[in-house]
Design goal:
Rossmann fold; 6-stranded parallel β-sheet; 40% helix; globular
């Protein structure tokens, strides 16, 4: 099978969720016999194309919105792992859908959402995928509740998390900070609900005293709201906003946190939840979106809009060693099933089925 995969989303030196998916999917597909994969980057992004090669090693070719036989020669399948596929029907097309957040008007700006919905529906009805991969049953159900006609060509394939477990065990890693802390990682975006994390931290600190909040992630939509919240907090000196960090630094921070606090308002998957579990960090996350599905029974679930409840769970974990140990054991066991090799194998099976 000759596969052409859109790798335009790897044109960022600091990869987040979708970039992590593309990088690890490709590297694992490259180990599967009879799968020959090349990368395609959107031609308008010419100036950034060299960054792709810092993440993954494969042949790279430019493409335009409309695919023609002249563009590439013979491929069996084009895979758009970041919602996008080009028009044209010279070969089969697969698209990965991570979430439908643009349809959530209470979470995202209406103008921005409208643009996203327009592009999304154009992809579905004009570019016309032959197969749709969703990264969770939650995302699959969101898609099919709006577009039930796509049910026969939609399949859930979970992402992996073992990209983060190749470093030394926590027991032999140095502590990144000289104080106890709870931790959040993710793009600083409105839907990540960091304002409530800060409010919950403030309440918990009143009870626990010596506690800090560490926030890791690059700026996203409405990050200014979070910055203002931190600036106005009476505990601002105890809130540490670090920006983007490497995977190795991330493992250090996960390893020694009292808890990973991730009460997001909406996630199509939620890689950080499983990252924390795999490293041995107890997780407090939201009871909505894909988080309940992805975390199984290995996390504490909370109402993301209730700062008091989030705070209560933080205090409960920080003051109960036995509870933390039990949750860590559950999380490490649960997270082992989410492997990139499995994700790649199931994706290759989708390709094969399309060509039969």
């Amino acid at each position: 099978m000759r596969i052409l995969m859109d790798v335009t989303s790897l044109m960022d030196r600091n990869l987040t969720g979708i970039g992590t998916y593309i990088k690890n999917l490709i590297s694992n597909l490259q180990t599967i016999p009879n799968v020959d994969i090349d990368g395609a980057w959107y031609a308008e992004k010419y100036k950034k194309r060299e960054i792709i090669s810092t993440h993954i090693s494969l042949t790279l070719k430019p493409y335009f919105r409309f695919i023609s036989a002249f563009n590439f020669g013979k491929y069996d399948i084009f895979h758009g792992p970041d919602y996008k596929i080009p028009s044209g029907s010279f070969y089969k097309k697969v698209v990965t859908i991570h979430d439908l957040v643009d349809y959530e008007s209470t979470i995202i700006d209406k103008k921005r959402a409208g643009y996203g919905i327009h592009k999304f529906e154009k992809m579905l009805f004009k570019a016309r995928p032959d197969m749709i991969i969703t990264v969770s049953d939650f995302t699959r159900n969101c898609l099919l509740s709006r577009f039930p006609q796509f049910e026969p060509i939609t399949k859930t394939i979970y992402l992996g998390v073992d990209h983060i477990t190749s470093f030394e065990p926590a027991a032999i890693r140095k502590k990144p900070f000289p104080f106890p802390y709870i931790f959040f990682v993710g793009v600083i975006d409105k839907r990540k609900n960091l304002v409530k994390v800060i409010e919950a931290f403030e309440i918990a600190k009143e009870i626990l005293g010596d506690l800090h909040l560490v926030i890791v992630g690059k700026d996203g939509y409405c990050h200014e709201i979070v910055d203002e919240k931190i600036k106005g907090s009476r505990y601002a000196p105890y809130i540490h906003r670090l920006g983007f960090v490497s995977d190795e630094e991330l493992v250090d921070i996960y390893s020694h946190a009292e808890a990973f606090v991730f009460p997001s308002l909406y996630e199509g998957f939620g890689i950080p939840v499983l990252e924390a579990m795999s490293i041995g960090c107890p997780v407090i996350t939201s009871n909505r979106g894909a988080m309940k599905e992805i975390s199984g029974n290995a996390a504490i679930l909370v109402d993301p809009n209730d700062a008091e409840e989030i705070s209560d769970r933080i205090v409960e974990l920080c003051g109960n060693t036995a509870r933390r140990v039990k949750l860590i054991e559950k999380g490490q066991l649960w997270s082992k099933q989410f492997r990139w090799s499995k994700c790649a194998k199931e994706t290759a099976e989708v390709y094969k089925a399309l060509l039969e």
